[in-house]
Amino acid sequence: MKLKTGQTITAALLVTGCIAAPVALADPQKLTVALYGGNWGDAFLKCVAEPFTKATGIAVAAEVGTSTVTLAKLQQQKSSPTIDVAWMDGGISEMAYDAGVVADLDPAAIPNLKNVQDKGIYTHDGHTFAVSSGYYSLGLTYNTKDIKQAPTSWKDLWNPEYAGAIALPSPANSSGVPFVFFMADVWGIDRANLEQVYTKLGALDTALFFDSSGAATNAFQSGEAIIGAHFNVGAWDLIDKGAPIGFTIPKEGVWATDARLHLIKGGKNNKAGEQFINTALTPEASSCLASKLYLGPAVKGVEVAQDVARKLPWGVDGSIDSLRLFDWSQINAQRAAVTNDWNRKVTAK
């Protein structure tokens, strides 16, 4: 089910016995955390929020939405934010920094930052503005009942037999704009001139351009889409539940990004927010997220079961260094233009 913008789910856990943070007893707090919906949100609550609440007695209120929706809220709330901590994807993360809505992450207040791989810590002009909770990839997903043999190329999307049953991300999804650049690479088109990419994408007879991972999952689950782009997280969740779905890495590869944590500038509960982020950077939390979402851990030394390892974005023998990561400064510089061109040349048929 696609959650409505602003829908809020509250996870308030009662803690008995000794509370680690005495201040929580004297002045019970609620920490508002922006996160994604569906199985993503469930995992973030289970792996991070519950251990945090158990240790501190501070309840977590989840503000559910996509990264772009969360950024819009943060910009609207800039003078008096109600969100304390936010998960946002790569690319949107940099936009949040540029918008001045995220605070610096202090290693003294978040000592577990030292546990994170260098690539998972995001710094600009001396300001550490985000930290990775784990990596995921956008691969080719298909219905195994309708497509007996795994597709080998992204160009297979243009096969006539898939007309009317293709799912692709829209620019409203954090993967939508980078997907355009990725398709330029697939077709050998100069990124400086994307006109041919729009022509090719506009020629596809799609079932939907999805705004959220949940919408893509619903389309594949219902059979509305039988092939298209989806995150390894969503595709493997469907496969684990017994859905006739396959996830494959085509010969042109896949691109990847990560889900990042941010402390919100001007938040009223920054100390609790720092504790929350510190909890998320433990090996236990990272291993939990890997097991539930198949996020590739950014925390050093995390070990997972072999069945989990093969579903991570880099596979059994890979690592962060195996991933194809985009230069977000380039993507974001053209984001507005790509979104405008997409609306005029791809969806306006």
Topology (elements, then pairings):
Layout: E1 8-11, H1 22-26, E2 30-35, H2 38-56, E3 59-64, H3 67-76, E4 85-89, H4 92-98, E5 121-124, E6 127-143, E7 166-169, H5 176-187, H6 195-203, E8 206-210, H7 213-222, E9 227-231, H8 232-240, E10 245-248, E11 255-263, H9 270-280, H10 283-293, H11 306-309, H12 328-333, H13 335-345
Parallel strand pairs: 2-3, 2-4, 7-8, 7-9
Antiparallel strand pairs: 1-3, 4-11, 5-6, 6-9, 6-10, 6-11
Note the total helix count.
13
- By oligomeric state, this entry counts as single chain
Q: How much of the residues is beta strand, in percent?
A: 15-25%
Spatial extent as radius of gyration: 20 Å
Specify the structural class. alpha/beta
The proportion of residues forming helix, as a percent range, comes to: 25-40%
Number of strands: 11
Overall pLDDT score: 90
Question: Spans with pLDDT under 50 lasting ≥5 residues?
Answer: 1-27
> What's the SSE pattern?
EHEHEHEHEEEHHEHEHEEHHHHH
Distance between the termini: 27 Å
Mind describing the biggest β-sheet? 11 strands, mixed
Tell me, what's the shape?
A: globular
